[in-house]
Amino acid sequence: MELVIFWVGLLLIVFCYMSLWFALSIYARRLDVVDSAWGLGFVLVAWIALLLRSNFGAVQSVSAILVSLWGLRLFAHISNRNARRNEDDHRYQVLQAGWGKAKHRKAYLNIFLLQGLLLTAISTPVIALAFAHRAGQRAHLGRLVRVVVRYRLRGSGRPPVGDIYCAPPERFA
User: Fold this and answer.
1) What is the Cα–Cα distance from 147 to 30, expressed in whole angstroms?
2) How much is the pTM?
């Protein structure tokens, strides 16, 4: 029963979070704000999972910190990219063109709430860490976290370098 209450609470928080971003999208008249919500959503889910479980062990805290670093970087990168544009992303323009008068309802259901569900599903490993607290699990998770931290620290320069190489040519003019 505790697991059901946890998931209902987490999904309710993600629902409210994505609803706030939808309200922002209506105010901004742009659906691509949902892309910025994606990065911060992972940060939210990681920390809310720890708060709801009150499980702040070393493994759980390190995983939440790593997710936060990645999520904040993703949020900053996508927000910066969207700020340089004067109009909505072409993917969302194409979707809206076929929706007619129901564009707000369809955008809310097909984009914002769907991405909220996907975000929660993709965050399942971090959520599972929030539930891990037995001694046997700690030893196994400790080794896993050491490998992940080592990999992440060794490769932490790669995503920003990749962003530079993938940037549009006018960025270098």
Assistant:
1) 40
2) 0.73
